[in-house]
Every structure is written in structure tokens, then in C-alpha cells.
């Protein structure tokens, strides 16, 4: 696979701590906006219980953090 351009890797590395500190707010706002624009997704695609309990938001947050971390350091072991 192609490696991330060093300049882009530096940007990702520099923003990871800030994103990590606010990831719950970011993912909550992401889903709020998405479901406001497309309410049919909540009815037909996403589990309402997971949304209400925050499980979906936490799963997205973990995926974002893992993806960004592996973009910067592809040699890290992949999560199970």
C-alpha cells in the first residue's frame, strides 16, 4: 500500500491529540447532523439503542483513532 505523504503524516500526528480530546463531541455532532439531514437512516439503517447509549458514536471514534494512528505508523500491529 502507498504510504502517507510525510507532510500529511505530520498534520495527522499534530491533530491526533486535539481530535482525541474532543472525539465524543465530534462523533455526537456528526451523527446529529447526519440524522437531521437523513432521518431515514436512523429508522432503516442504524440501531436506535446503540445511538441512544452512545455505542455507535464510540465505535466511530475508535475507528477514526485507529485509522489515523495507522496512517501515521503503518508498522503498528493491526487491531483484532
Notes on the protein architecture:
The model has no long low-confidence stretch (mean pLDDT 85). Helix content is 76%, strand content 0%. It has a domain at 24-72. The longest helix is centred in the C-terminal third of the chain and has 18 residues, at 55-72. It has five helices and no strands. With 80 residues, it is an all-alpha fold.
Summarize the structure.
By secondary structure, this protein is mainly α. The protein has five helices and no strands.
Number of helices: 5
Shape: elongated
Major sheet: none
The oligomeric status of these chains comes to single chain
Strand content: under 5%
Query: Could you say which structural class the secondary elements and strand pairing correspond to?
Result: mainly alpha
Mean pLDDT: 85
Span of the ends, CA to CA: 20 Å
Low-pLDDT sequence parts: none
Amino acid at each position: 500500500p502507498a504510504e502517507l505523504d510525510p507532510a500529511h503524516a505530520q498534520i495527522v500526528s499534530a491533530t491526533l491529540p486535539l481530535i482525541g480530546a474532543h472525539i465524543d463531541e465530534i462523533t455526537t455532532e456528526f451523527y446529529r447532523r447526519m440524522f437531521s439531514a437523513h432521518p431515514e437512516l436512523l429508522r432503516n439503517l442504524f440501531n436506535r439503542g446503540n445511538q441512544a447509549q452512545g455505542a455507535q458514536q464510540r465505535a466511530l471514534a475508535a475507528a477514526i483513532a485507529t485509522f489515523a494512528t495507522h496512517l501515521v505508523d503503518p508498522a503498528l500491529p493491526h487491531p483484532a
